[in-house]
Amino acid sequence: MNLPILGKAIDERFLNHRLRSSSLAGIIGAFVPLGLFEYRYYVKHVWSWDLFAVVVTMVAIKLALMAWFRWTD
């Protein structure tokens, strides 16, 4: 696949690497607040509801998009 404006600078490998890297970044982005939440709960014995809300939102979006892509593919 060649894009007319960018020529051979962007091909399938570039798009595949971009897809994989952004997926991995999203997963890691969900594990960081989860780790902070667990640290604050187990070490400081404090519930951080803001971090919990971030993790739940990211998981819900991920699952909703997985279902959407499964049903529309």
Describe the structure.
With 73 residues, the protein is an all-alpha fold. It has one domain (12-72). It contains two helices and no strands. The protein has helices at residues 12-42, 49-72. Helix 1 (12-42) runs antiparallel to helix 2. The longest helix is centred in the middle third of the chain and has 31 residues, at 12-42. The two termini are 21 Å apart.
Task: List descriptors.
73 residues; mainly alpha; 75% helix
Question: Strands, helices and their partners?
Answer:
Layout: H1 12-42, H2 49-72
Task: Indicate the percent of residues in helices.
Answer: over 70%
Low-confidence stretches: none
* SSE sequence, one letter per element: HH
How many H/I helices?
2
Structural class: mainly alpha
The 3D shape can be described as: elongated
| Average residue pLDDT | 85
Strand content: under 5%
Number of domains: 1
Radius of gyration from the alpha-carbon trace, in angstroms: 18 Å
N-to-C terminal Cα separation, in Å? Answer: 21 Å
Strand segment count? 0
Main sheet characteristics: none
Oligomer: single chain
At a glance:
This protein has 73 residues and is mainly alpha-helical. It has helices at residues 12-42, 49-72.
